[in-house]
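Predict structure. Chain length: 98.
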Amino acid sequence: MVKETTTKVSTSKKRVVAKKTAAKKKAVVKKRAVTKKVGVKKTSRTKRRVVISAEERTLRIAENAYYRAEERGFVGGSANSDWLAAEADIDAIYSLYD
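Prediction complete.
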């Protein structure tokens, strides 16, 4: 008989703990939902382009073109197409300093 009462008590305790845990989770979910609605608007920042010299531009294009050729295993493609694609990449990132 003692074992049965102990089991009943522990089972009821488990149920009470489970209910409390579920209630806490619901409260946390409700709090999160409220904070998401109140969010702050992000301001857009303008991207500044870095200015480099013509020599630096040429070096960066050469390096980028090399990595493009290396990526395909130096097989197929052409050096000119790699150079032109690298040139477009670098020009999109940097401005030329005159």
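Summary: Residues 69 and 77 are 8 Å apart (CA to CA).
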